[in-house]
Amino acid sequence: MAKKKEVPVEAVEQEAMHQTDGVQVDNEPVPVKSSEKKTSSKAAPKTEKKTVKRTRKKSNPGNDSETAKAESPKPKAETKPAVRRDQETPRVVSIDEKIKVITNESEKQNMLLDLLESLRAGRILTDMIQGVEMYGDEPCAVLYHGEFKVIIPGKHLIEPPEDTRGQPEKEIYRYLVTKRLGAEVDYVIKGVDQKADVAVASRLEAMYQKRRAYYTGTDRNGNRLLYEGALAEARVTSVIRPGMFVELFGVDTYVPLKALSYQRWADACEHFQPGDRVIVKIMKLERINRTNINVVVSVKHAGENPYEKALKKYSEGNSYIGTVSMVNTSGVFVAMEHGIDCLCEYPKRGRPPIGARVTVRILGIDRKRHRMWGSIAYSSMTY
User: Fold this and answer.
1) Phi and psi at residue 223, to the nearest 5°
2) Is 72 inside any structural domain?
3) Which of 140, 273, 270, 264 is nearest to 198 (CA)?
4) pTM of the model
5) Distance CA 114, CA 228 (A)
6) Per-residue b or e along 251-263, where b marks 16 or more CB atoms closer than 10 Å to that residue's CB
7) Which of 200, 199, 102 lies closest to 147, judged by CA?
8) Cβ-count burial of 152 within 10 angstroms (0-12 exposed, 13-18 middle, 19+ buried)?
9) Residue 362 lies in a domain
10) pLDDT value of residue 11
């Protein structure tokens, strides 16, 4: 076998140093310590080729810039601060494609659109009078359309009375507005303050619109909508002891106590209140012009006269039970069953109070004039 040639140690060290001179870290040469020279000289024969290949790839000047770009840290994208769920506007998850439940926000938006439509297009809105407030020297009716406060000045709520009886105008309007608390009225918006959620309106303008539509308008056949003898629904706007005021499609008219019922009533306030609706019969209708209209109506004539049938159920000489409905100079009126009255003389023990339960003996019946009279035989209350 041929003997291996011995390679001088100095030659191996020089060659190893020549191969490691090109190794760089961060573009700076790495110095080789003297203690590492022996180790590198012993391992040189085994790692010579691999070391040369590595140094040549890293020593390529063209790859240095690419390596620096690859190793350079990328700028981090700006991240927005996370929003907590309890700080987000709550979102309603609907069952269908569109939510059908009306939320408070959507309801307020709808109410605002109603006010704006009334302001711009003259649409008539309807609400109930819930309060009376003084703005300066003028009394105003207060209504609420959703969350919006609607103010109607007294002069835009009621037509001025013909006779003030010497009272100050302010006091007259204050009394008239107060008597209409709870009444259902139409109105047209005249101004809206969206920031304050307040609107100003006029009832009289809405009434003028209804007068033109119902008293001068016609149906498809050319017939009048309202005429003498017609039945119509009216709103009770104010009630006093001797009668009440109703609004019939833009016209305020007074209904006396005797036109309210076939029975004798002493106080209309015991039977009606503002906000009620009643069926009336138009007894007289006078069209002076498109806005000036006079109407006379009756509540009792809108229904059947109960005397025609009820009188057949009573006979002279017999006794029946009833309730005292009114007492005046004519005598004691006793409300019998089936909606009729019996006029009785004052009993010897004194006149009974209204509401007393009494027994009446029938003394006479006039079926043509619808009258019945008798005498009080017994009362269930002490008087």
Assistant:
1) -90, 150
2) no
3) 140
4) 0.67
5) 35
6) bbbebebebbbbb
7) 199
8) buried
9) yes
10) 53
